[in-house]
Structures
1.
Amino acid sequence: MTDSPLLNEIKALIKSSGPMPVWRYMELCLMHPRYGYYVSRDPLGREGDFTTAPEISQMFGELLGLWTASVWKHMGSPQFLRLIELGPGRGTMMADALRALRVLPPLYQALHIHMVEVNPVLRERQAATLSAVRNITWHDGIDDVPDGPSIILANEYFDVLPVRQMVRLENGWHERVIEIDPTGKLQFGAAPEPTPRFEVLLPPLVRAAPIGAVYEWRPDGEIMKLATRVRDQDGAVLIIDYGHLRSDAGDTFQAIVRHSFADPLKAPGQADVTAHVDFQALARAAEDVGARVHGPVTQGDFLKRIGIDTRAAALMQKATPEVATDISVALKRLTDTGRGGMGSMFKVLGISEPRLTGLAGLSDLERAGETS
């Protein structure tokens, strides 16, 4: 990676306005109107910087389609349903989900598809992938999606929402910032004054964190918006992302380039910058607005509960030996808990209107904080 145009702009902002909070730096890296990572390219696949579960295997999207059908039936099979995807990549997951849903004509006819996507390059890819789909609309944000009963799918969406970082110093918790070092490079620093009474808001595990510890948190606005929507208008949200089940201290701010980790302060706008998702915080915020929370559970457990082993076996039975091997490798990557597997690193959380007492693959008994 070489120096990016955004790097010079960020340095100019820091020189004129002072050190920049981590959340603002992350926001500029991803969403700068001209140089932001997510507004200018297709980052997915072998030629991109990372690969998501839908790109690994058709089984992922197909099973989420069947999960959607299960929730729809649990909702009483409404004759009108908005199926919303947040950050839908290339449209692969939606295409696979809809293929699975075609076997249920009453639901397929009830669907209105809404894709929440800000990247014009990816919008074009999605439109091409879903060119045969009727009743499909694109939006810049969830606020633009019309009201109505909804099932909302959010796979690797929350990890790119800007994260705030606090660092514990001798006299309290200070906001972590980006500043310029004496050689002209970006470096981490801390605001000179502690944030008043910040420790009062902290989860118990974090209050005991040592000097130098970093705590990350995201504002609750986005999750509360989704939870309020399904609480009031019927439906459910399915969140799949990498992160931790319990709120705790730890610095997870990272950059990924060409499927490898990189320095997040180098070449801003040219790398995907993310931070792990705090699933306990998401669950707590959803419950605070009166929605029902289901899970979280690990991705491996969720996919196994909704039938990925059976689906893999059915596909392999009809496949050539080479394709069967590919299916087996994909199954292992999606569900395995070992190195390279997504099974335990990724978590799954369901949120619904209060009367939906059970969602497929998720148990109301398994709650954030009760498992690590």
2.
Amino acid sequence: MAASAALLLTAAACTPGSDSPSGSTSAPSTVKTDAAALGDVQLTVWDQEVRGGQAAQMAELVKQFQAKYPNIKVNRVSRSFDDLKTTLRLALSGNNAPDVVQANNGRSDMGEFVKAGQLVPLDEWAKAYDWGSRYPGSVLQYSRYSADGKTFGEGNLYGLPQVGEVVGIYYNKEKLTKLGVQPPQTWAEFEDALAKAKAAGEVPMQFGNLDKWPAIHVFGTVQDRYVPADQITTLAFGRPGASWKTPENTKAAEALVSWVDKGYFNQGFNGQGYDPAWQDFGKGNGVFLIAGTWLQADLQKALGDKVGFMLPPGEQADAKPVVTGGTGLPFAITNKAKNADAAAAYINFITSPDAMKVLTSTGNLPIADTSEQQAPAGLAGDIFTSFGTAVSKEGLVPYLDYATPTMYDTIGAALQDLLAKKATPAQFLEKLEADYSKFAGK
């Protein structure tokens, strides 16, 4: 441990642009916002914008950025979410780290990078570019950490996201019509629709959990119906004062297992990948799909006006929404950035009001100025409305894997076992409680 810490300090001390002789990763006291006056810069950017509309918006914004600032050459490296998560940790500790990265907000990624001093606080650039006027505090909290990486949701700003996210329910309108079912307005109606789909020989819900993380979203959707929102937030932010071993969480786990018992998922879901699952849904196989708004462009292209999106319904039709969501992966500046001002200028450009228009036109959900955009009719309209409702009614709860540095792996593996009936709900919750309590305490 001591040797590793020494290596990190040495790397930080050599960081170009660091004003501190001790090699701390604090932002410079003065920043430069005239990107055209920064001279020739090579900027290496790693992102995970690889799917349809995600890739299209990023390609267009990089093109526009380089046209405006020909002195800054962007070397964009695009990787899938899983590939980025696997390679980023090693890259940040090496000598050839990228300048700008998309880092998962969670403790296992951004929290650990902050703790290791591998990311630069963005607060000085946030002031210079006035990001606070574009991004409400409720959004920025998802990219804030204390300098030691311990406290999530407070402290320095370490990233800025482009998109908003909410995990909801995609549905095939044509199949619902054949079943004689309207889009459900309550949780009971939703479960009734799943039962009718099964009885009619349809796949009630497409689900691919080979990657393990998709089940986090499905369980989170069920949990949101049974567990008070404040308890979910405490657990997901890894703060002391809550417990996984509660009657409410037990009911949620039991409800998820009951979907397996009733055959509501496609066969072999634990061995099917996430992408093949949503692609099957896009081919017309399945009535429902629990997934995030990031699939908007791809499912719109595949199903056209046959696909709809809604927030998971509550116990009552007019219930306040409680829904998993927040922001897409924020863009951060590494402590190895050769020109941090150029890196900040890039982040500012791809999150600007004009960038939000590009995001809208390419089938994405902009996190800033959302109400100012003219969303197309159909699926995009459903998603913009759903996200707006969740934000305006303060119904968003964090992703569960944010909780601890190891929760991503813990809950993913535990959910696979739960869904495979290799663990009981009590055993499942015991694993989560052990991870959570070890980190957050009692």
3.
Amino acid sequence: MVDIVRKRFGLVGRNISYSFSKGYFTDKFNSENFEGCTYENFDIPEINAFPEVVKNTPDLKGMSVTIPYKEAVIPFLHKLSKKALLIGAVNTIKITKKGKLKGYNTDYYGFKKSLQPLLEPHHKKALILGTGGASKGVAFALDELNIPYTFVSREASEKAIDYSRINATTFDNYQIIINATPVGTSPNVAAFPLLPYEFFTKKHIAYDLIYNPAETQFLQKAAAQGAKIKNGLDMLIFQAEKAWKIWNK
């Protein structure tokens, strides 16, 4: 009888019972016959509980990281990949044979790969709604695509404009609007970023990193004006498969 090698993986976050990752990887392990592999949620109230998760989970080989810990987890890691260091946010952790924790960012890869098929020559500039960890991967991907961008936040700062600054001229100048905030995520499906949606046109892309619901109010309102819309499901699948490769390389 062959001993099955046990490999555990999981997601670190807060209030993550809704999460895509657990279902996705569980289905993957079952359908592709990865015996001994399991994926679980590590729902922690604060990042200081993270070391205990690692310590108390034998056979742990890799972890995904979601909001609100993509930046907060970094001080607990031994090393970062070059791109994670540049981005300043981590959504994938590999645990080496020596027990060291190395952080990666696969969000930027997933976003970039899912956005590229939508791009046309007139899509020249982007607005990124939100300034948290998720927005950093988006910004890095846009840099690689040579698409200039501006951050939007509830309060203006050196790095971001606030929502009150967005008007018809903004929509003329920015043809890609990306929601990198959690506003509109289930169960708060009636919520949406406060934009003048009447200025969306068929020349705009509205991209929402949220995947549940499949069409947020943000996407519905943009689509009603003729905009091309995209949710975050493909991004999640692409980043998850990239994480799987990292855990197994």
